[in-house]
Amino acid sequence: MAEGDTILRAKNRLSDALVGQSIGVSAPNPRGRAAGIERLDGRTLAGIDAHGKHLLFDFGDLVLHSHLGMSGGWHVYGRGERWRRPRTSAWAVLSGERSEAVEFGGPTLRLLRASRVAIDPQLARLGPDILAPEFEPAPVIAAMRADPGRSLGDALLDQTLVAGIGNIFKSEACFAARVDPWRPLADLGDEEVAAVLEAARAQMLAAVASGRHTYAVYRARRPCPVCRGRVSARGQGDANRTTYWCPNCQG
Ligand SMILES: [Zn+2]
Question: How far is CA 127 from the centre of its chain?
Fold first, then answer.
């Protein structure tokens, strides 16, 4: 699953390779053709925005919107370099002067009018981006307070409350802040929720810089690194996404 840190790294790589250039656009797979992305062929890519798990490619009055979900990915290759996946499975190929970016899979690839981005139902519902330079926990906490019976771990994955946190950093941030992800928001002080959000942001920014994920509790492959006790794992929320936590350290 691509979380916000992976998307921000992709944005940085894609921007270095393609922004400011006239882009050749093709869609070898019917899914990309169905999205009409070939209309972008020959346009200049003015910039790329990341918001949570979403990428927005600015082609003037048209914007290419991608969301990678569990399975999608953007690869960046030198022109003529061999791809790691078959050409026919590429939904979008963006070719610049020296590099090409290739998109495979994912739930969302579509064209939007630039004037619609601010009012698009899928994008306008997104909460503040956890990795945005101006991120502040207070508005997120205020929004979470609307549903006080909801558990913290479930709320952290709700992209309409805060955009960019996925299953890894849900578990890792709660562990770093020593907060039990199963506690309902009504039981948590603002400073506890803020500590979890700030931990998620710090961990994700570190992952953007290093390109690596290091896990304390995620996937429960080892004992708790603090108390050496057993890490618990259980599905949480409507989507039943597995949460990992140390009942001893996060009691
Ligand atoms: Zn522990």
Answer: 12
